[in-house]
Each structure stands twice: as structure tokens, then as C-alpha cells.
Write a structure and sequence with these properties.
The structure is a homodimer.
Chain A lengths: L4 H14 L12 H8 L3 H13 L3 E4 L3 E4 L17 H7 L4 E12 L2 H7 L6 E11 L2 E11 L8 H5 L2 H8 L4 E12 L2 H6 L9 E11 L4 E9 L6 E6 L6
Antiparallel strand pairs in A: 1-2, 3-4, 4-5, 5-8, 6-7, 7-8
Chain A binds a DNA duplex through helix 3.
DNA sequence: TCACTTAACTTGTTTGAACAACTTTAAGAT
DNA sequence: ATCTTAAAGTTGTTCAAACAAGTTAAGTGA
């Protein structure tokens, strides 16, 4: 149940592209031919197409049309430019995901934690350490910090299922954006233990550090995700913009 | 010389945010107060703000306003959700970048290369192997494949400066979007040699594989970038969208 | 004082229109 | 036949307007 018209058009076009209804590499029907189909204004249709562009599904060419450049992805992958929980990723890839909570503590941020996470000193936080497994294989070791005032009532039981589901469906919080930084770091003993890694094999892993904001503009989550290197895969679609003069 | 009005407004607001003209964490002036300043329509202003949202600079909150959530980045970083050449990254970070061309060959894609790169079999290609250094330290080992028909006249000399500058300024090609996949891979002997790495230290590196398209919708470049892990840093801003039902 | 309602102000969505810029096709002149 | 020009069709930008939806503050009543 999409709330807006352009969003339902976007989803419909996306589905048709994914299902191969529009030939790959060819031009889509022109705006003027799509407008009567969707019974919308030109602006609304163009808004839907603009999102397909940022998704890397199509390419608009002035004077010519809109080219379908969709390439299906076969491998399991995470986080295609959008925020996705582990549970959502698992179900999207049709795999059996499970989560084990290693630690669940409540504490107050000191200066060291504040500097590292971006929370203010003295903030009441949850710290949660979890391992996400896919088909029984541990893939991700997560260190989550949640702002207690923004995420009240969090429990280890909820953390073992899906925190995002709790945030959105129970607390009715709206997650909006997430600033992420990807790096490669050396394996720690903790990684080695819980991700069942062997230093003689891989001695590093992929680390995604993220600051996440809700619709009130409050940074309520800081997370460090440590990914098994041999299963880590991160997709992206970048748009080239005029260089800064 | 921005060609469009919304783009110049976007750049102006971006500059004001970066320079701290708008207090961090606070709301920006409302649309109705900005419209007379920029002498534009509401749609045009909103379009500029929409880009600031995707950049992760601001956060719009319905009924309240637009919150400045910009956090300055101190460390050198590459490719913030946009396509950027090594030369541009270096100059943005005010560092001295240099490029060494290791190999420059022309060849025809066989079935193996076609499968790996996505080019069609029999396509005439350039293969270029380069090392990018920052302040004399080798950081990136690049394997580039360019479609000869789309990028004619490429030489090793051009490759040692900036290929993108040649594409955009000489060939007047417009680069549009790039599909990227990030993974972590084990170091090869070639990596070890040219990136001056020690297997006993790090034994993996960050790999970015990208398919890049021009404004004609032609995939003209396939590149594998192998990054020194201790200097690799990739930034991103992700937007949460309603989950697929 | 307190709770409720209303009004004002904010961003979000949709429509319609006009013109610009670019590409392709068709028509015309040589 | 060939080149030039014009027209039609495409996406790109900008404007103006109206209403919806959410937040805040002021006002009103008890």
C-alpha cells in the first residue's frame, strides 16, 4: 500500500523491468505514452523515473528516451544503497537467517565512547553484541549502540529477532538515513572466535560503521558491522555529476 | 558555471552548510524564507534540497523543517556516492597524486574476458594496468578495460595523466552512472609487488569492481580497483525506504 | 491552571503549463 | 542522389497553484 502515486508507479515500473517486460538495453516507452497508462501528470511520472535512475535501473538520455540498463544479480548481496536489516537481506536472498545475542548491557557513555560513536557524553545507551548467521554459518559480528531515550524498552529477546522491526512496527519510529563508512580492518580475537575464522586464512575483514538517524533528526544508532571477508559483497550505483570548478 | 538554477542553489546551500553558516543540528530557514532569497519557485528550491538529502547533508521533517545533519570529514576518503577519478579525489583531499602505467595493451575479448567483464565476445578493448600513489605511497592497483569503439585514441601517455579528463574534455563523452561492487579479496603476488604490501601484515585488500556507462547507455568501462586496506575508506549515505510487502 | 480547539506555519504530493535542449525523421532544395 | 532545412518527438528545467499532512503556538473554554 504505497502512500503516494509516484511511488506506486515507481514500484510498477521497477517490477516490469525486473521481470523483463521491457527489453534489456532498449528504450522504455516514452513519457507521453506512459502518462495515460498511469493516469498521472508528467511530473509525477518523471519523479518515478528519477528514482529508477538513482537505483541504476534506467538511464535517461535527453532527446532520445529512457534506456533500460538493468542487470539481474545472481549472488547474495547486502545493502544496495538502501538501509536494510539483516533479516530483510536474508529473506530477499531467500536464505535462512538467524541471530545470536552475545551481550546486552545498558550503560552511560563516557568521553571515550562519546568520541568514538558520536553520542554525547553522559547519554544513556544500550550496547548489543550480536552474531548473524546465514544457513548456520556466522557471517556478521555486530556491535550496536542505541540511544535509550529514542529506543525505549529494548530487550535481548527483541535483539535476537529484529530490532528494526521493533523500531518501525512497535515504536512506530521512522528510520530515515544512515551515514556509512566502509573500511578493511585486521581480525581481532573476538572476530576469530565468533565468526569462526582462521588468521592463517584471512587476517582481515570488512567493517561498516554507520550513524543512523530517525525522522526527528536524532542520531539514535551507532553500529559497527564486521563482515566475514569471503561472504562480504556490497553493491552500489554511483551517479556522475559535473566536477567542481 | 552551473547550467541549471536548482544546481546553483544546491551548490550555494551546500557551501553554506559546509562552512558552518547554518548551525549544525539545527533547522535551516524554511522554504518560504529561502524562495525570495534565491528568486525561484518552490519546486526549484525543493529540488536543490532533495539533492542535499541524498548527499546526507540535511534531513527533511514534515511539518517541522529541514535539519542540518552535516558532519565534516577529517580523513582522506574516496568516492562519496559519486563517481570520482583518482585525480579529483587527490585534489579534493589536497594531496599530491601520481599515476604509473604498468601495462597498456590492445586486444580482443575472448569468451573468458567477456564473461568476467560484461563486454561482448570479440569486442576490441584497451587493457590498462596502473598504480595510483598518494604522497609517493602506492595505494591503488587498477585494472581497466575500455571499449575501443567508445574511447578511441587512448594512449599510455593519457592514461598516466587522467583518462576521465580525456574522455570528458577531449572526447566530450558524458559519463553517467557506474554500478559498483565492493568485496574483500586475498592479496596476489602482483598486489604485493606494486602496492608494496607484506603478506605477513595484511593478507587481503578491498576490491571495487565497476561497470560504467556513458550517456548513450553504452557500457564503455570495466574496472577492478584493488585498494591498500590500511588506506581504504569508502563513504556512503543510505536512505531508508518502505520495505517491500 | 489545565485541557482542548483552532489557527498558522512547516514540508509532501499532484496537477498543468510553457519553454529549452536534444535527437530523429521527414520534407524540400539543389 | 545528396545535402540542407524544417518539423515532430523526446527528455530537461522552471514556474504557479492547490490541497494534504504534520508540527507548533496561540487562543478559548471550563
Amino acid at each position: 500500500m504505497p502512500k503516494s502515486k509516484y511511488e506506486s508507479i515507481y514500484k510498477d515500473l521497477k517490477l516490469k523491468i525486473e521481470s523483463g517486460e521491457f527489453p534489456q538495453g532498449e528504450l522504455l516507452p516514452s513519457e507521453n505514452s506512459l502518462i495515460p497508462q498511469y493516469e498521472c501528470s508528467r511530473n509525477t511520472l518523471r519523479r518515478a523515473i528519477a528514482r529508477l535512475v538513482t537505483d541504476g535501473y534506467v538511464q535517461t538520455i535527453q532527446g532520445k528516451g529512457v534506456r533500460n540498463i538493468f542487470i539481474p544479480v545472481d549472488q547474495a548481496s547486502f545493502a544496495i544503497g538502501s538501509i536494510e536489516s539483516f533479516k530483510e537481506s536474508a529473506s530477499r536472498n531467500r536464505r535462512a537467517g538467524s541471530t545470536q545475542v552475545l551481550r546486552f548491557v545498558e550503560f552511560t557513555a563516557d568521553s571515550r565512547v562519546a568520541a568514538r560513536t558520536g553520542f554525547s557524553e553522559g547519554a544513556e545507551l544500550y550496547y548489543i553484541q550480536r552474531v548473524h548467521s546465514l544457513d548456520g554459518k556466522p557471517l556478521i559480528l555486530n556491535h550496536n549502540y542505541f540511544l535509550k531515550s529514542a529506543v525505549p524498552g529494548l530487550t535481548a529477546e527483541i535483539a535476537s529477532r529484529s530490532i528494526y522491526e521493533y523500531l518501525e512496527n512497535t515504536l512506530h519510529m521512522t528510520i530515515v538515513n544512515s551515514k556509512r563508512v566502509m573500511t578493511v580492518e585486521k581480525i581481532t580475537q573476538i572476530d576469530e572466535k565468533y565468526l569462526e575464522l582462521d588468521v592463517n586464512d584471512y587476517n582481515c575483514l570488512a567493517v561498516i560503521t554507520s550513524h543512523t538517524y530517525n525522522s526527528d533528526g536524532v542520531m539514535f544508532e551507532f553500529t559497527q558491522s564486521r563482515h566475514r571477508p569471503d561472504y562480504f559483497r556490497f553493491q552500489d550505483n554511483a551517479l556522475r555529476r559535473p566536477a567542481i570548478p
